[in-house]
Target: MarR family transcriptional regulator
Amino acid sequence: MNRQESLGYLVSHLNVAIANELDQRLKRYQLDIKLWPVLFALWQEEGISQTELSKRCDVANYTMTRLLDQLQVQGLITRHQEADNRRAFQIFLTDEGKALEQDLIREAERVNELFMAELDSTEQETLMQLLIKINRL
Model:
């Protein structure tokens, strides 16, 4: 098997390229690619626990703690202690975190457009459907 026949290689190579492009765009906002999944998840639903956020972002809880510390220092999130569990926190976006949504989503859309430009609209739709199917989302 060569690399053009390896799904793992092709997906990994594309993932690195997309992540690098998005990371460069996020740096304009003093952010990096590690923080993207957290913000993206919170824009979809805030007030979830750190544990739930870790699951949604597919990172270990201790890693999520560091990411949330970074976002809190930047003034983009707050943690609110859950009433029934003093060790658990709900995560909320600050106004500053909410204000970034439109700009950062647009940056991500531009990255998508850049990487999908070689495909016509039917191919783009098919690719997305196949990726969803393979990922079992």
Summary: The two ends are 28 Å apart (CA to CA).
